[in-house]
Amino acid sequence: MQEYTLLISEKEIQARIKELGEEICQRYKDEPLVALCVLKGSVLFFADIVRELPSATALDFVALSSYGNKTVSSGEITFSKGLSLSIEGKHVLVFEDIVDSGLTMTYLKKYLETQNPKSVAVCTLLDKPSRRKVDLVPEFIGFKIPDKFVVGYGLDFDEKYRPLRDVCVLEPWVYQD
Ligand code: 5GP
After folding, report:
1. pLDDT, tens digit, for every residue of 39-48?
2. Among 48, 60, 97, 100, which one carries the catalytic annotation?
């Protein structure tokens, strides 16, 4: 039985990344920018989109752990890898794979603000606005998607499916007991 079905193809993702790259370049012009990748789910998105950004863009990585079951986060979040660059006085653009409840991005934005950046904004590949628990609107959004559990293009279930080139909906029988 097929474990997943196509939602957004590689071609659509790559076309949207070009557009997002242009929007981001327009917004920040030549101002110093730190592009921040939220590991691990954003890694493929990040690798593709930073190639659309100015060569002076600094890259940094954070990893966050959230406790909960495998398809719904609980909102209890901790850092498992913090910043390695100073963001003081700089624009920070966070690259996220998917914003769901919005709790992870709210937590990260609050933390980043304590480091005195010039600004903090969020660019998410995918947005599930119907699931939002807090008032968080990402500044840049690749695709709004329905309330389905998706995998591929960096997104996993149980560390599987990350290498898929497309974003796919995982069939519930794969993750439901
Ligand atoms: P939030 O804190 O916004 O509820 O959750 C964000 C995190 O939950 C994402 O970074 C991702 O790790 C996980 N997540 C939410 N929805 C999905 C989904 O449909 N598929 C996958 N693979 N992860 C998801």
Report:
1. 999 999 999 9
2. 100
